[in-house]
Amino acid sequence: MLEKQVLFAKLFAYILRLYGDVLRRTVKRKTRSLWRKPSSAAGPEEVRPIVIIGASFAGYHAARTIATSLPPDSPYKVIIIEPNTHFQFTWVLPRFCVVPDHEHKAFIPYGPYLGDAADSVQWIRDRVETIERKCVILTSGEKIPYEFLVIATGSAHGGELPSRVGAERKQDGMKRLQQVQYRIKDAKKVVVIGAGAAGVELAADAKEHYPEKEVVLVHSRHAVMNRFGPELQAAALKALEELGVEVILNDRMAHEDLEQGRVVLTSGRVVECDYLINCTGQKPSSNLFAELSPGSISPSGHIDVKPTMQVNDDSLPNVYACGDVASLHVGNPNSRSATHQATVAGDNVVLAAMGKKPRATYTRHWADGVIKLTLGLSKSITHFGNGQAELLFHAKEKDIALMSEGAWRAMGATPFEDPGLEPLDENGF
Ligand SMILES: Cc1cc2nc3c(=O)[nH]c(=O)nc-3n(C[C@H](O)[C@H](O)[C@H](O)COP(=O)(O)OP(=O)(O)OC[C@H]3O[C@@H](n4cnc5c(N)ncnc54)[C@H](O)[C@@H]3O)c2cc1C
Fold first, then answer.
1. What is the DSSP letter of 268?
2. At what angle do helices 230-243 and 197-209 cross, to 10 degrees?
3. Tens-digit pLDDT profile for residues 360-406
4. Helix axis angle, 57-69 to 2-35, nearest 10°
5. Which atom of ligand 1 is nearest the CA belonging to 322?
6. Which is the closest atom of ligand 1 to the Cα of 59?
7. What is the CA(40)–ligand 1 centre distance, in A?
8. Is the dihedral of CA 187, 193, 197, 200 positive or negative?
9. How far is the CA of 279 from the centre of ligand 1 (A)?
10. In terms of pTM, does the model score above 0.90?
11. Which of 60-64, 213-217, 284-288, 362-366 has the lowest mean pLDDT?
12. Which of 5, 134, 216, 339 is 20–30 Å from 279 (CA)?
């Protein structure tokens, strides 16, 4: 019991520190913007590029940190390379795979998060295919030189719903979400593979939204949410079972035979199924960097980084990595740790660009591993754990679209206005 109280006190101190840091940065940003001059001060021949690959939680935040911290008249220019037309808000994907009419909320317009610095940042809508020592090469074949590089390619390149959208345009992403909704609606028996957060949330939502359907959740480990503590595991299992989800543990899919409407598990057990959803693990998207610096890739596939977020390759001091792609042994990689790491990477790029030593460091904090897990349409648990003790905060969820509205606001966008959206096609996409 005392352990919980100590953990609670530490959590409170952590939150105070977090708010203090946010306040300090906001004041710094606002005062800078008062004397920021138009970025046109630097002529094209003077531009010194800082390239950021990927604009999700880590890359977008690193871009903002750098662009809003560079001194006025800096010759440096931030260039973001990102294939997606919109920021894809992962948190709501399992929910929007089940519940219709909210798909558009998962795609937040890019730009306003950069605030006053937005005009000085260049966007390139493309994918990086190769990283070289002085430049990156895009799918288009164009070479973009860099003086500093931030790799924020995350995980699950090529991933599919419900973990990643798997489409670059908003309209295509919405269509994909709707296709999953239709498939779940049409199915009588849904099998979900993988009981990490995405699998648990999707299975619980599907069963609560369609109580008449059979929903089976198959997981290869001894417990659902096995990367977290036993209290969260037990609470999640209880909630799933109360909803009527059948949970099969210590088993995995051997093969699917959807024509016969079944899935065969390694134990030999056969589960009837007419729609199968795969929610198994994500892989870090580090392949780009593996060619340039194979020694910097950890056995888990992450890019090894120093606490400064510089890659662990002394021949590449100006290359940084942050977020899900970076290896800092974060138990539960999430957007909080991704943005925290991006702040450190961004601060250090700015210091180095000003000729100073990169001295900001990222230290893993157990509270960075917080998770808010939805358990059906109206319940959630926010969980903190430090390996010895756990804190579980149960809550009632009133908003079917979860935190999308807050996410739009946090990204500087007006919910759910999207003036820059490309014209819809004849089917409304
Ligand atoms: C279903 C689900 C729910 C989640 N819920 C939560 C939650 O509630 N709370 C929480 O804190 N975290 C949550 N997470 C975790 C969170 O989404 C990730 O930790 C976070 O997205 C990591 O951000 P990132 O920027 O490192 O990488 P990613 O989000 O993976 O983004 C990588 C970006 O890089 C781009 N990219 C990749 N390769 C290239 C390339 N070659 N060239 C150019 N661009 C490239 C991609 O297009 C993408 O935009 C959830 C994750 C999932 C899957």
1. S
2. 20
3. 999 888 888 889 999 999 999 999 998 899 999 999 999 999 999 99
4. 50
5. 26
6. 25
7. 32
8. positive
9. 15
10. yes
11. 362-366
12. 339
Which of the listed residues 84, 86, 89, 91 should we mutate to test ligand 1's pocket, taking the one with most ligand atoms within 8 A of CB? 91
Give the separation between CA 313 and CA 377, rounded to whole angstroms: 46
Q: What is the CB < 6 Å shell around ligand 1?
A: 53-59, 81-84, 90-91, 93-94, 127-128, 152-155, 157, 162-163, 197-198, 285, 288, 323-324, 333-336, 338, 372
Measure the CA–CA gap between 168 and 166, rounded to whole angstroms.
7
Ligand 1 centre to CA of 174 (Å) is: 17
**Domains, the chain:** 45-83+125-157+282-366 (3.50.50.60)
Tell me the CB-side half-sphere exposure of residue 66, using CA atoms within 13 A.
35
Nearest in space to 95 (alpha carbons), one of 219, 213, 232, 206: 206
**Cα-Cα-Cα-Cα dihedral sign, residues 228, 232, 238, 242:** negative
Q: Of 233, 245, 240, 334, nearest to 282 (Cα)?
A: 334
Q: What is the pLDDT of residues 218-251, one digit of tens each?
A: 999 999 999 999 999 999 999 999 999 999 999 9
| Residue whose structure tokens are 């754990």 | 385
**Ligand 1 atom closest to Cα of 370?**
11
Torsion of CA 122, 109, 27, 382, to 10 degrees: -130
**Selection from 11, 101, 17, 114 nearest residue 67 by Cα:** 114
Residue that the structure tokens 């940003």 belong to = 29
Count of CB atoms within 10 A of residue 238's CB?
A: 11
Q: Are 63 and 55 in contact (CB under 8 A)?
A: yes
Protein residue whose Cα sits closest to atom 49 of ligand 1: 56
Report the candidate in 322, 51, 96, 290 with the shortest Cα–Cα distance to residue 202.
96
* Cα 296 to ligand 1 centroid, rounded to whole Å: 21
Q: Which two tokens stand for residue 101?
A: 């009419």
